Amino acid sequence: MKGISWGLIIGISIGVIIGVLLAISALFCIRYRRKHSQIGNSSSRRAATIPIRANGVDSCTILSDSTIGQESPKTSEENGISLWLEGPKRKNVVSASGILKYSYKDLQKATYNFTTEIGQGAFGPVYKAQMYTGETVAVKVLATNSKQGEKEFLTEVLLLGRLHHRNLVNLVGYCAEKGQHMLIYVYMSNGSLASHLYSEKHEPLSWDLRVCIALDVARGLEYLHDGAVPPIVHRDIKSSNILLDHSMRARVADFGLSREEMVNPHASNIRGTFGYLDPEYVSSRAFTKKSDVYSYGVLLFELIAGRNPQQGLMEYVELAAMNTEGRAGWEEIVDSRFDGKFDVQELNDVAALAYKCVNSVSRKRPSMRDIVQALSPILKLKHSRKHHKGALSATTEEISIDVDQSGMQIPITELRREEPMDSITDPPEV
C-alpha cells in the first residue's frame, strides 16, 4: 500500500510539473506572436504618417477641384492615414480615412520639377500637373517658409476626407515627403470666380450664369451647415475661393480656416478676409453658420455689382439701400457690363435676399437652406422660360419651312447669352 501511494504521488507531481511547463510555453508563444504582429503594424503605420507642426493659415485662389473614382498614381491606406502634431502635442494622433497618398517623385515629374505654376496664395504656390495616367491635377504646396499654413493643411486633409458634395472641392490626395506638404485636387479648367469677375482675360459673366453660380455656392454651404456631421462653418467665403469647372459649375474651395461651429465668445482669434467678415463675429469672436451667411451675402452683391469689398462694395450697397429700402430699385448698383441684359424682378429678388444676409444682427439673417429655397425657383422659372422659347422657336421654324415652299422668307433670330468680365487683385486676408 505504501509503495502504491508513493508511486501515485510521484506520478501526480510529475504530471503537474509537465502541465505547468506546457502552460508557460504556450504563454510565451502567444506573447511572441503578439509582439511580432505589433512590430509589423508599427512599421506600416510609420510608413503612412505625416509629421505636421502646429500653427496655421491661408487660402488659395485659382487651383482645382476633384472628382471621385479617377485613377491616379497614389497609395491607398486601408485604414486611412495617421497624422500627428509635433512638439508638446506629438502624441495626439488623429485618423483620416480614405485619403490617398501621392509620392513626391511622381508629383515632381508631373509638374516638370515644379515649373508649371498657375497660382500663388498665402499657403504657397499652386502647380498644374499632368499625371502619367492622363489625369490632370492641381498641386497646392505649403511654402517651406510659411508660418501659418501647416494647420490649414491638416484641417483640409481631415475635413475633405469626410466631406463629399458636388458643390465642394473634393480632395484627391496629399503628399508629405522631403519636408514638403502638398494637397492634390483635380484641375479646375475655369479657375476662380474672382478671375472671371476681375480679369480682362475673360468675357463678362451673364446674369443667368451668375445666378447659377450663386445657387451652386449656396448648396455647397447648405451641405456644410446642415448635411455635415458635425456641422462645419467655412469662415472664408469669397470670390477667390469659389472655383469653376469646365461647364462653369461652381464649387466651394479652401477649407483651411473651416471649423465646427463655435458659439463660445473670446475662444478664437479673428480669421478670414477683410470685407467679408461678419461684424458680429468680429465683435464677439464667436463664429457660427450665420457668419458664413453674411460672407455669402457680400458674395451675392459682388455678383450683382461686379465689384469687391476692396472697391467699397458694402458702402455702395448701403448707399443704394437708403434709396431702395432694401426691397426694390437695386438696378442702380448693377454691373454695367450686363448692358441691360438681365431680368429686373430677378435682380431685385436676389439683391433683397443678399441684403437680408448682411443684416448686422445675425439672428435676422436667413439660413443657407432658406437661401437655397429662395434661389431655386428663379432658376426653375428660367428653365421653363427657355423650354417655352425653344418650343416656340421650333414651331416658328416649321412655319418658315412651309412658307418658304410658297416662295416667301421669314428670318428667324437667335438669342445668344453673353458673359461678363472684371479686373482686380484678391483682397487681403487677416
Automatic annotation (TrEMBL):
<dbReference type="InterPro" id="IPR000719">
    <property type="entry name" value="Prot_kinase_dom"/>
</dbReference>
<keyword id="KW-0812">Transmembrane</keyword>
<keyword id="KW-1133">Transmembrane helix</keyword>
<feature type="domain" description="Protein kinase">
    <location>
        <begin position="112"/>
        <end position="379"/>
    </location>
</feature>
<dbReference type="InterPro" id="IPR011009">
    <property type="entry name" value="Kinase-like_dom_sf"/>
</dbReference>
<feature type="transmembrane region" description="Helical">
    <location>
        <begin position="6"/>
        <end position="30"/>
    </location>
</feature>
<dbReference type="GO" id="GO:0004672">
    <property type="term" value="F:protein kinase activity"/>
</dbReference>
<dbReference type="GO" id="GO:0005524">
    <property type="term" value="F:ATP binding"/>
</dbReference>
<protein>
    <recommendedName>
        <fullName>Protein kinase domain-containing protein</fullName>
    </recommendedName>
</protein>
<keyword id="KW-0547">Nucleotide-binding</keyword>
<dbReference type="Pfam" id="PF07714">
    <property type="entry name" value="PK_Tyr_Ser-Thr"/>
</dbReference>
<dbReference type="InterPro" id="IPR008271">
    <property type="entry name" value="Ser/Thr_kinase_AS"/>
</dbReference>
<keyword id="KW-0472">Membrane</keyword>
<dbReference type="InterPro" id="IPR001245">
    <property type="entry name" value="Ser-Thr/Tyr_kinase_cat_dom"/>
</dbReference>
<keyword id="KW-0067">ATP-binding</keyword>
